[in-house]
Amino acid sequence: EASSDGEGGGPESPVWPPSFGSALAQGPREYMEDALVVHPDARCGFLFAALFDGHEGAAASTWLRDNLYKYFSAGVDAAGCDISPPPAADSKGVAKPQSASPLLEQTMAEAFNEADKRLLKELAKRPPPDCFSGSCATAVLVRQDRILAAAVGDSRAVLARGGKAIDLTPEHRVYGPSQVARREVQRIKDAGGWVQQGRVCGILAVSRAFGDWEFKGGRQQLREELLEDYPQARKATMENELVIPTPDVSEVARDPRDEFVVVASDGLWDVCSSRNAAVLVAKELKAHGDAERAAEAMVAYATKKKTQDNVAVVVIDLRGSA
């Protein structure tokens, strides 16, 4: 549900708290595997929004929806809220997001890794297919001085600033020319795995995720099962985990030109560019100032464009549409 609009403020005093809204749709899929959560009053003065795109069922994504925030909170409680200043923006204010403050980056990485350990233990108690479930995750932290994003998988967070769209998160896929894709392919090869047809071991479309026990503790068993159909399995050692839950974390300092953040699963991004999403959401917020309706409009857009996946969208209106 959308929160109430915050009080208006000048350029140096961002609207706080920001309004937000969310929407989900199953789309043409047989099951709903996307999930999301927003904690507007999170630790250290942050708004915490997270979105989860599950695969092999919804067991992982729903567990993360209910539990990931606890691990972030525990990490912040241990580290404290004495966080270094956010990175300064360049003159244009639209530079690629810089790496996060070391403490925040470490806190988010530990939260993701600790949550994954617990998730794998929980899933191990369940029958198939739940025990093989996995999930992408993108978490965004918004405060009056900074925006931080942490992600595994191919959901995306986009910041609209001064009419431009800035991707806050990369996509952990193993095809295409991007630097991240090349890095991930090399990491999987170094771990003793292989990439085939743009998938990890010819199976999984993302290279970082929660859950996915087969590519972590169960990877040798997976290798045995793949020996017959994949010649690469004979040479593969799979000595290290092929799919990891360690997020890429980025951070930007708040800027007077900041408009809103869109977090969405690939059910939207498969049919809509970051730039197009920024234009459409801006149009919605200008028309009615309702973040919830803007999120619903993006889900409707993805459906109209015949997305083949579940769709989940969170819109955080940094101007509060006051």
UniProtKB/TrEMBL annotation:
SUPFAM superfamilies: PP2C-like (SSF81606). GO terms for molecular function: protein serine/threonine phosphatase activity. Residues 1-11 have a biased composition (Gly residues). It comes from Prasinoderma singulare. Residues 1-22 are annotated as: Disordered. Residues 19-318 form the PPM-type phosphatase domain. CDD domains: PP2Cc. It comes from the Eukaryota. This is PPM-type phosphatase domain-containing protein. InterPro entries: PP2C, PPM-type-like_dom_sf, PPM-type_phosphatase-like_dom. Coiled coil: none annotated.
